[in-house]
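@channel sequence for tomorrow's demo:
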Amino acid sequence: MSARAERPALTPGTSLHDYAAFLHGIDPDGRVPSGGHPLPGGPPSGPLRSREVTRGLTELLPPALADPDPARAAARLDRCLTERGMHPDDVYGLAGLPLPDEAAARALGRRLLLTATDPAALAVGISLVGKLGGPEDVPGLTTVALLEGFLQPVLYTLASLRCDTEVLIRLIGVLHPDDHARVISQVASRDDPAARDWLLNLPVGPHTGSSQARHVALAVRLADLLEAEHPGTAVLAQGARLLNRMAPEGGTGSPAEILAYKPAVRVYEALVRRADRLPPTLDHHAILLSLALDLSSGPPVLLDWRPGLREELLVRLDRLLSTPDWAAAPDGARTHEDRCRAGWIRRMRREPFDRTTPDGLRIHVVERDPRFGDDVETRILLDGRPLVPRVFPQGRSPAPEFVLGRDLLCATPEEREVTLATAYCAEGCCGTLTVTVRRDGDHVVWQGRRRDDPGPRLPEHRFDAAAYDAEVERARTDDTWCRPARGTARLIAAGLHERPGLLARWGIPLSWCGTAGPYEETVVLRLAFGPGVSGATGREASQWVRMEWRLPDDGRPPAQRAAAALERLATTDPRTYARFRDGDREYAASLGLRLPGDD
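structure tokens (generated this afternoon):
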């Protein structure tokens, strides 16, 4: 009984509280899995939320409260809720019912919190304790918060009990990073020195969401800190990181968080004017370059800037990063990750400063700091303003392969439809930002597509044809932003597009080529085939396989690596050397494919 896998639960009668305590106790220094420990009987079925359910619930609580023995009342309510198969969401509202005997309700809630075996019964206990409990209930609440589905209701309850900030900080210490955001938001809502001090030193990384970053900046009063006479280098660096995490395009149905952060212009100005107080390290160089990239072509361009201020801040950043000490910072990279970031700095160093934004069309291809992923965005600016965050907050600027790789923006007399962004949810939900592109004499015309869809309709834009062609050609042929692995992947993908018969001869209709990650130079080619991929219905719809071919960096230039890969795809069935990734294993075995675990 030394590992969770050896004994996922105690006995059938073990309470959920004790189950969570047991799992944490056998590995007290370990992290809870993402989403919380799975419940012993699996997740409950969906909430019922019918009038009959509500009526039945209101009949259960009064008898339980009338029982003078809280243990007996809790056991009976636990059994009743188990028999009815209720979902926790069906019962959280029970605590809103009139509770004439608060002492009895408090005793029942505390008993359920510690002894309930049914998730709905535990939810009743959490609700009653949240309404009538006190500090002595906090340990029990933080224990059940480790269970799947119970973190958010426990956080609401802890907020109502006004628990110490240290309680939330300790809870973050055991949760999976995927679940930190909700607890950090609770800490950020507190106006106390302990919360502000902890948030000011909070690590800001890939798991820091844009909304979370905004809440933290507001909670620590970032604008006031940066405008102080001596803000300190730690405050300056943290401020830059928070701005960088707020700046990405929304992509969640809302504008970029930086546009909702009212002190944004104050913070940018105060930070950039004091940026020369930061030591010239590689990390500081990276966060300041990220600031410049967003000030040049990202959503921050849409803030309410006074005339000339944004341009002045970009000039200041350019001058600072050009000084000898700052320019030499990437040369000191020692670790593999730092060398990757140094390479990114060299690729992006001039992007925010050499790309002017005249009237008309301007295209910025921006690779983000690899510390935060492998994203590359094609930012389209119309008359100096970024298009996607301005008119389609539900979407994200696309990768260059989707709008530049196939010459989609090139204008001809024949009208062409181009999708500039797809909604984060799904095209069928919030639609796409799509324009038609056509040449009209000395002009190129962009117009919103005519067919109805849930996406926005872009007003007509007319561009000088010569200037438009020059900008599209410049963006299409400029690969200074592209690291070798991505360049190899782009060339392979382009070769497969130009030679559709290359994979068709092996019966492979779908492929995708990209990189293995921001810190890897390995190229990954994924291939999907089978009746299910080709549109079969019925039983054959489940017969599909996805294979993966990984091409490690061998030191050759991207063009040579891509040519060699395409040659092998043309001459040898990739199913003989690619590895099974997922799909129907039985179908794969019938084709003679080698599966994981085979000798």
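heads up for whoever presents: The longest strand covers residues 432-440.
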